[in-house]
């Protein structure tokens, strides 16, 4: 399970469970190697008017930017940030925790947003 939502002006939250952490690690690796990858998400939105069905990750961000178009959220990330995220998701898979919560900062519509990761234990 992977879900994204925005709960304030400067924060975007990415919730995921163990399977989601594995998928995120795999998709970030794919973006690093192939230049891009896509992740299907559920029950996600930037706000009440902008539903998100897919996150596209590219390795061409300098600086890192985020775009929204037709239910697709594109994250253009620097290769070093992608590599760092892979390490973080791997640690999450092994320890079942995601701390610290900050994944990265991105520019979106003249605002700097911080993307936070929230690991959800499935019971």
Keyword list:
alpha/beta; Gyrase A, domain 2; 4-stranded mixed sheet; 8 strands; 49% strand
Q: CATH class, anyone? A: Alpha Beta
Q: What coarse outline follows from CA principal-axis ratios?
A: globular
Number of domains: 1
Radius of gyration: 13 Å
* Secondary structure category: alpha/beta
C-alpha termini separation? 13 Å
Average pLDDT confidence is 95
Strand order of the largest sheet: 1-2-8-7
Low-confidence stretches: none
CATH architecture annotation: 2-Layer Sandwich
SS strand fraction: over 45%
Structure overview:
Helix content is 28%, strand content 49%. It is an alpha/beta fold. It has one domain (2-118): Gyrase A, domain 2, CATH 3.30.1360. The strands form two sheets. It has a four-stranded mixed β-sheet with strand order 1-2-8-7. A four-stranded mixed β-sheet has the order 3-4-6-5. α1 (18-34) packs antiparallel against α2 (79-95). The protein is globular and about 35 Å long. The two termini are 13 Å apart. The relative contact order is 0.23.
């Amino acid at each position: 399970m992977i879900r994204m939502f925005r709960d304030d002006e400067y924060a975007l939250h990415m919730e995921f469970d163990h399977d989601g952490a594995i998928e995120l690690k795999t998709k970030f690796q794919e973006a690093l190697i192939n230049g891009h990858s896509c992740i299907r998400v559920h029950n996600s939105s930037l706000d009440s008017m902008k539903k998100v069905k897919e996150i596209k990750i590219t390795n061409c961000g300098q600086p890192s930017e985020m775009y929204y178009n037709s239910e697709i959220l594109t994250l253009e990330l620097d290769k070093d940030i992608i590599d760092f995220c892979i390490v973080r998701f791997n640690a999450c898979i092994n320890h079942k925790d995601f701390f610290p919560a900050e994944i990265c900062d991105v520019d979106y519509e003249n605002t700097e947003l911080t993307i936070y990761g929230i690991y959800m234990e499935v019971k």
